[in-house]
Amino acid sequence: MKKTALITGASRGIGRAIAIELAKNGYHLALFCHSNIDMLNALAEELHANYKIEVYTYQGDVADYGFTIPACEDALDKLGQIDVLVNNAGIAHIGLLTDMSVDEWDNVINTNLSSVFYTSKAVAPSMVSRRAGNIINISSMWGTVGASCEVAYSASKGGVNSFTKAFAKELAPNGVAVNAITCGVVDTDMNGQLSPEEKAELAEEIPVGRFCDPGEIAQTVLSIINAPSYMTGQIIGVDGGYI
Known about the structure:
It holds the Pfam family adh_short. Belongs to the short-chain dehydrogenases/reductases (SDR) family. With about 240 residues, this protein is of the alpha/beta class. It is built from 8 helices and 7 strands. A 7-stranded parallel β-sheet has the order 3-2-1-4-5-6-7, sandwiched between helices. The termini are far apart.
């Protein structure tokens, strides 16, 4: 039986790792990116060649419903169905809240939280009609406990966590699971602004003693997909014991 997935923020980091992991497991893919379309297309060609799957790519801003909803609808049309929706796209903003502009605030909230609404609104009805599906939201431990100088990011991810719990209750009677992964410090470009010394100091604070590899988040996504459908509305921490 054909298996399909739609992944946002798929050109690099966690999203790229998830795309590779699902491709290895036979999923046909719709991959979204904001600007790295050449990188995404190269990944799509590689996955198609290696795993003989269909891969469709989309470039645009998931913070813009005028792009996101039509793109999701096109992916649904091309793939025939979406079994798994992975909301991974996200941006960070570091600085004092009082120094943050309204536009910067809106950009973080719309990219990290509103995009989850847009994709879910576009894809969930088809899952409900088939009484099957998985929505997996990539969140952050800061959405649970908050981080100084990352108020907008923390607020957006806290919103993702609450969205996950609430939407899971809406969709549970229709056999659709909604869960979130609260990531710890993952070794991606988002943490690229840290110096080697800062990374070493941060790693010492993590009980496991290292950053998370993006592939470990991808493996967690697959484990959620393969979990019993009774598991829904869960906020699953993958943070090396940090919180």
